[in-house]
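Hi, here's the filled form for the chain we discussed.

Project: internal
Contact: R.S.
Residues: 443
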Amino acid sequence: MTSPTTSPAAPARTVPTREDRRARLGVALLFFTNGALIANLLPRYPAIKAGLELSNADFGLAVAAMPVGALVAGLGAGWLIRRFRSSRVAVVGTVITGIAVLLTGIAPVGGLLAAGFLLAGALDAIVDVSQNSHGLRVQYRYRRSILNSFHAVWSIGAVLGGLMGGAAAGLGIPIAWHLGASALIFAVVALVAYPLLLAGREPAEGLPEAVDAVVVTGAAGAEPGVAPAGGGPVDSTRASSARDGRRVSPGFLAKWGVLLALVVIASSGAVVEDSGSTWAALYLGSLGAGVTVAALGFVSLQGAQFVGRLLGDGMVDRFGQKAVARAGGVFVAVGMGVALAFPSVVGTIVGFAAAGFGVATLIPAAMHAADNLPGFRAGTGLTLVSWLLRLGFLASPPIVGFVADSAGLRFGLLIVPVVGVAVVLLAGVLEGRRERGSAPRGS
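And the returned structure, exactly as it came back:
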């Protein structure tokens, strides 16, 4: 996508301009703050749960309000972006997200805790879509894929936020002071990012540059998925073939069966991420870890996911999405399976790291496959997978919580190796290894 000052027939650019580099830095700062804000809250979960005297099931239900908010608000993100611009929505949304996280952390009763999660989830979804929308504008100007680098920066922010929260918990800093300082710090970062972003309104839908922009493979991150937000780039081959009516539609059951498999693969990544964000600190605490060490479960998952994202493009180019996803499923199943079979603090931290590394490429792979799935209008498969993968974030907390209350959190976390096995079994719907020099499907 381009800025309004760029003509529809923008020439290929090999060297980014100063404006392009500034905008890339600005978007990276937004991804960084988005990763750090909610991650600051996660290490305080044990204290919040204990302070409100909630059961595992009640706490899981409260946390599930976050993806509910994201599911509802995500549908309105496109309108907000078209009305107010992606840059403004991302920055203002980031500032308000920090306030929502603070209100969640200091909620005096379980009902208000759920309401805080609902608000934080809604804002996070809006910011998520808007920062990705602006990142895609910048990516078009670079004429090469850079969106994965933004999601890697998100992981850095999440690791930093987890370490900040763990340190604050270990030092006994009151939650209100800790989350208030976090909200202030990252609000300043977001405001600093604003003047660096691209000027002007979002490009109108249907412009040639919107069709000719980028392969949507890079439009997914490990954090919650992103649905196209009006005027977003779509795959040029998909779009042209859709216009010309040359796409071959498989049978109804076949195409929806493949789409369902892709939703399960993407949701598996969401379930693993939720296991680290919602339950890692609580489970490590049950094994005797202190509050600071307990935060390392989430940090190790996000850190390993960051490494997986850095290596992911090269691994996919060499081995194909199918092989990489199957190997990732093995990492998840074996890593967390062994950690749960032989519980220890160190083994559990390593298990969460293996799971994080394993799911690093799952959501991008599922989105790419959905965007190239025959039988759907251009963009429909991607939108459905992007939206429905949040069901993993919605279903996982209460399921784990109910099992934990009945049999213990160790058994509740068995959902992680189970989804790893599911990925191994369903990865056949993804793209295999390409011949050297051939382009990805849909590029």
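Let me know if anything looks off before we file it.
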